[in-house]
Every structure is written in C-alpha cells, then in structure tokens.
C-alpha cells in the first residue's frame, strides 16, 4: 500500500510538529524517491537542502533510495556540482518555495556528496539516468 508521507507532513500546520514528522517518518521510509542537483562524470551524487530531511534520508534513513536524474545535471566534478547547486538549483528551488510555501527564499544549509556506495548496504541507492532535461 502507498502511504504519501510527504502529504502527511505538509498537512501538519504546527511547524514544530511538522519538523518532528520530517525527522521521524520522513527520513525512515522503506522507499525514498528523489533527485540530485548534480551528478559528476565519475558518478558522484550531489544535492542540498534546508532542513536536513533530504540529505538524512538519502545518506542513511531510508531503506531504499531511488534517484531519478536528468542528463542535464551531469557535471565534470565536485566543484562544478557545488557551482550548479549553489548558482542554479538554489535559485530555482527558491522560486518554487516562494510559490509553494510563501517564503522569501530557500537556502543551502546541508550539502551532501555521495562518493561511493555504503559498504554495509551497497545496493541501497539506485540511480536512473534519463536522457532528458529533468528538474533543476
């Protein structure tokens, strides 16, 4: 059965309770579907977030992570991944956050680069590259 955890979290209007839901049910799901802001040519995955809920879920919390990434996000190296995240993805996410949440902007509080598979769960993260421009 499908449980839309994201909708459950957003339905909570108390910010403190919503933060607790992000921590408890948002990052420890069986399957976590996400994207990245950049993928390096040698396969490193880079992304950022404001609260830590995304990087936490990807780095450790979720049992399985499915990453869907458009080829528009492929960059040369980690330096270019940071530049793309900071200069392009942050601006696009800020515009989305203004519309979705009525906030002035987003911010990069957490920046994560996954350089290799977790040695204790090597198949936990699956990456699907789509030969198209997807997201920001």
TrEMBL record:
Any idea where the LUD domain is? Answer: 13-130
Pfam families attached to this UniProt entry: LUD_dom
Signal peptide from the UniProt entry: none
Q: Read off the InterPro entries from this record.
A: LUD_dom (IPR003741)
> What is the recorded name of this protein?
LUD domain-containing protein
């Amino acid at each position: 059965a499908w449980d839309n955890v994201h909708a459950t979290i957003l339905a909570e209007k108390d910010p403190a309770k919503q933060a607790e839901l992000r921590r408890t049910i948002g990052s420890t799901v069986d399957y976590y579907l996400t994207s990245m802001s950049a993928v390096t040519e040698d396969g490193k995955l880079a992304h950022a977030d404001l609260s830590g809920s995304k990087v936490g879920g990807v780095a450790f919390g979720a049992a399985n992570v499915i990453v869907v990434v458009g080829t528009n996000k492929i960059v040369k190296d980690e330096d270019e991944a940071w530049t793309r995240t900071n200069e392009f993805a942050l601006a696009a996410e800020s515009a989305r956050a203004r519309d979705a949440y009525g906030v002035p902007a987003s911010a990069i509080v957490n920046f994560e680069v996954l350089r290799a598979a977790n040695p204790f769960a090597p198949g936990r993260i699956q990456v699907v590259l789509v030969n198209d421009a997807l997201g920001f």
